[in-house]
Design a protein that fits this description.
The complex is a heterodimer. By secondary structure, chain A is mainly beta. In chain A, 0% of the residues lie in helices and 54% in strands. The N and C termini of chain B lie far apart (41 Å). The chains are: A mainly beta, B mainly beta.
Chain lengths: 114, 115
């Protein structure tokens, strides 16, 4: 499977600021996804990011709060804007590989908002 | 609302026993089913996927799928303390376009294997 890296691995940010998380893949992939995992919870899909098209956001997530870029087939960014303590979470990117919708995850970014 | 349900556990089994993890899903159109293992503080790791009714074996792991009952399970034979983790069931939801295909995750079952 693809090797996926994320930057930063963790950060502590003040409320009202923004953080951009990077996701880099070592091979070209069409489908990339951004998830949030709050403490003790399961994964919640934020948006799907396909190269060459606008990201598709899930209910409850909006582009103004979570803008996503997908400039090429190996890279994507997720920005968490105007942060509040409720945004404290682990943010994960994943890629789809194989013929059956298998997804593989990056190591995650642990965000704490104070 | 498409849902995936799992017992949160913890499921405690002794070393060497068979651990049985269960998952039900609501979308009858789902065709792909996945089991992820997540150690504390780590990201989910794909360990099994299954598309057809019946059993699929990979080493100590067996995934079982029953589409009529909308039920998928994971058996772990000869359980080891290193298998202690949260196991997430995920189901593919096919959207109207490829941009809306997605995985829906259950809340996970915490497995504890004690020596």
């Amino acid at each position: 499977s693809a090797v996926i890296s994320q930057k930063p691995s963790r950060d502590i940010c003040q409320r009202g600021t923004s953080l951009t998380i990077q996701c880099q893949v070592d091979s070209q992939v069409t489908m990339m996804f951004w998830y949030r995992q709050q403490p003790g919870q399961s994964l919640t899909l934020i948006a799907t990011a396909n190269q060459g098209s606008e990201a598709t956001y899930e209910s409850g997530f909006v582009i103004d709060k979570f803008p996503i870029s997908r400039p090429n087939l190996t890279f994507s960014t997720l920005t968490v804007s105007n942060m509040s303590p409720e945004d404290s979470s682990i943010y994960l990117c994943s890629v789809e590989e194989g013929s059956g919708y298998e997804q593989y995850f990056g190591p995650g970014t642990r965000l704490t908002v104070t | 609302q498409k849902e995936v349900e799992q017992n949160s556990g913890p499921l405690s089994v002794p070393e060497g026993a068979i651990a049985s993890l269960n998952c039900t899903y609501s979308d009858r159109g789902s065709q792909s089913f996945f089991w992820y293992r997540q150690y504390s503080g780590k990201s989910p790791e794909l360990i099994m996927f299954i598309y057809s009714n019946g059993d699929k074996e990979d080493g100590r792991f067996t995934a079982q799928l029953n589409k009529a009952s909308q039920y998928v399970s994971l058996l772990i034979r000869d359980s080891q303390p290193s298998d202690s983790a949260t196991y997430l069931c995920a189901v593919n939801i096919v959207g109207a376009t490829s941009n809306t295909d997605k995985l829906i995750f259950g809340t996970g079952t915490r497995l504890q294997v004690f020596p």
